[in-house]
Amino acid sequence: MRRLFKYVPILMSVLSSVFLFSVGFSSWLTVTVHSDKASGGSFAIYEVNEYVQCPNGPQVFSYTSLYFVDDDNSPFDANGNLNLDAENCGNISVTYFFTDKAKEAAKSTNGLTLKFSLWYTDAKDDAKIFKASNTTASVSTGESTYHPDSTTDNFSFKHTFTSTEENPLPDSVTVTYTLTTTVRNFRTDFGQYLLDNYGADSVGIGGRTTKFFTSAEEEVSAN
User: Fold this and answer.
1) Residue-wise pLDDT tens digits, 117-171
2) Are the C-beta atoms of 210 and 117 separated by less than 8 Å?
3) In this model, does residue 8 exceed pLDDT 70?
């Protein structure tokens, strides 16, 4: 027993070092942005709308303190080294399903116009992170790319859907918002504004974490 007590101080020293390393490592590496199941605009995205339904909500990017995490756009080179000049993107995508009323409206002379919006809450320093230089939106049924007109915290754009017998309106459309930067500029462009979320059971600064929201409002004109 006396021999065991002899090694207790050494064991405690080793365990303390391991504990401090683990806490320091996890606090900056594991950071994920979650999206609440809510939206603004004229309706909630989880309810039935006259023209579109959105049962699944937005899929929001993840990130570390250094870069966006995207399997299709890795910031690491072939040797596993972090490339500071690599283009780094964070994507937010949401799929809307058209109702029968939408398909009928798209056949009209003016078509079906929807106003899509993306915004966030609980960001640092009253951030306005959407800029024409770093934020784009695309619609899966079209080739146009949309940009914010100015630096903003609420990015909106309008897209018109038309339908003919030869090219009928599909059952759904996916809207993808892309935030683009480089690893070197990630913290300046985005990282400094986004509140951290340390693990599934805790939140960031002041009990808050940055949340992203989407909506689609109809703007149907008379025939």
Assistant:
1) 999 888 876 788 999 999 999 999 988 899 999 999 999 999 999 999 899 999 9
2) no
3) no
Task: Please write down the HEC assignment for all residues of 157-214.
Answer: EEEEECCCCCCCCCCEEEEEEEEEEECCCHHHHHHCCECCCCCCCCCCHHHCCCEEEE
φ, ψ dihedrals at 10, nearest 5°: -65, -45
Cβ-contact 119, 105 below 8 angstroms: no
Q: Where are the alpha helices (DSSP H) in the chain?
A: 2-29, 100-106, 186
Is pLDDT at 41 greater than 50 in this prediction? no
* Alpha-carbon distances, residue 94 vs 118, 126, 172 (angstroms): 10, 25, 10
Beta strands in 83-134 (DSSP E): 87-98, 112-121
More confidently predicted of 48 and 117: 117
Cβ count within 10 A of residue 71: 5
**Which residues, other chains included, contact 85 with Cβ-Cβ below 8 Å and sequence gap of 6+?**
182, 183, 184
With 80 as the cut, is the pLDDT of residue 104 above it? yes
Lay out the sheet containing 112-121: strands in order across: 154-161, 112-121, 211-219
* Residues 6+ positions from 204 with CB-CB distance below 8 Å: 195, 196, 197, 198, 210
Contacts for 12 with CB less than 8 Å, ≥ 6 apart: none
